[in-house]
């Protein structure tokens, strides 16, 4: 296995000669350019889809937060109404019961 390296990228071993062509032919160049363009295009497409998804999620989050604020306001109003009714009920009953009769004076 006598291997010698010759100038010009030629490798010789046991009488066989292997050579590497350093020239770049047109189909190889076109294939590399097409692969590069496809990779960049798909990467840019993925970036745009993520950007759209993020903006969609932000919109949904804003709607959810708005709904929660409205629901909290509705709950506060309902609790105020219940509290007023309970106060009125207790105040009306205070005059009937002897232990609470002093509350109405």
Stretches where pLDDT is under 50 for at least 5 consecutive residues are: none
Rounded mean pLDDT score:
82
Main sheet makeup: 3 strands, antiparallel
How many DSSP E strands?
Answer: 3
Sheet/helix structural class: mainly alpha
**Rg (C-alpha, Å):** 42 Å
Q: What is the rounded distance between the termini?
A: 118 Å
The share of residues in extended strands comes to 5-15%
The ordered H/E elements are EEEH
Work out the helicity level.
Answer: 55-70%
Shape, per Cα inertia axes: rod-shaped
Question: Count of helices?
Answer: 1
Strand arrangement across the biggest beta sheet: 1-2-3
Count the domains.
Answer: 1
What quaternary form is this?
Answer: single chain
Protein name: Phage shock protein B
Transmembrane segments: 29-50
Keywords: Membrane, Transmembrane, Transmembrane helix
What are the defining features of this structure?
single chain, 105 residues, mainly alpha, three-stranded antiparallel beta sheet, 1 helix, 11% strand, rod-shaped, transmembrane helix, transmembrane, Phage shock protein B, membrane
Write a brief caption for the model.
The protein has one helix at residues 26-94; strands at residues 3-6, 10-13, 16-19. By secondary structure, the protein is mainly alpha-helical.
Structure description:
There is one protein chain. The protein is mainly alpha-helical and 105 residues long. The relative contact order is 0.04. The protein has one domain (23-103). The protein has a three-stranded antiparallel sheet with strand order 1-2-3, with no helix packed on it. A hairpin with a 2-residue loop joins β2 and β3. The model has no long low-confidence stretch (mean pLDDT 82). It has one helix spanning 26-94, and strands at 3-6, 10-13, 16-19. Helix content is 66%, strand content 11%.
């Amino acid at each position: 296995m006598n291997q010698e390296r010759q100038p010009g990228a030629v490798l010789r071993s046991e009488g066989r000669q292997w050579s590497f062509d350093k020239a770049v032919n047109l189909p190889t160049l076109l294939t590399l350019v097409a692969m590069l363009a496809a990779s960049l295009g798909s990467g840019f497409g993925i970036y745009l889809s993520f950007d759209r998804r993020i903006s969609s999620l932000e919109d949904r989050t804003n709607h959810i937060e708005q709904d929660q604020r409205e629901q909290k306001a509705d709950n506060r109003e309902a609790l105020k109404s219940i509290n007023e009714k309970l106060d009125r009920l207790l105040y009306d009953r205070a005059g009937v019961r002897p232990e609470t009769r002093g509350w109405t004076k």
